[in-house]
Amino acid sequence: xxxxxxxxxxxxxxxxxxxxxxxxxxxxxxxxxxxxxxxxxxxxxxxxxxxxxxxxxxxxxxxxxxxxxxxxxxxxxxxxxxxxxxxxxxxxxxxxxxxxxxxxxxxxxxxxxxxxxxxxxxxxxxxxx
Length: 129
Hints:
The protein is mostly helical. Helices cover 51% and strands 5% of the residues. The protein has 4 helices and 2 strands. It has a two-stranded antiparallel ribbon with strand order 1-2. A hairpin with a 5-residue loop joins strand 1 and strand 2. Helix 2 (51-69) packs parallel to helix 4 (96-120). The radius of gyration is 30 Å and the shape is rod-shaped. The protein starts with a strand and ends in a 9-residue tail after the last helix.
């Protein structure tokens, strides 16, 4: 009888009925010597199939954080966008363009922050005069 694991690989298991039983009255068991031990295949619990999906979510999150960071909280959202975009690219995302755009927007967040600090000695936007 086989058991399906999370990765949908069939592993073999030995049923409990095939266990050798000792003979009553004898000092050694002849049936246990005749039956070879059964081994089961190790189950794999790695989730390599979910890695691109997680990386795609990181790429989208990096893009959104970088875009929002241009307007508010660029000190926080900029480095988060850079970190998420880098992780998404390292994990092999299918959305490389979005990850690169999130990385670019994260860097732009920090550039806006430092330019505001240099021009006004503050990190706030001011429209008009």
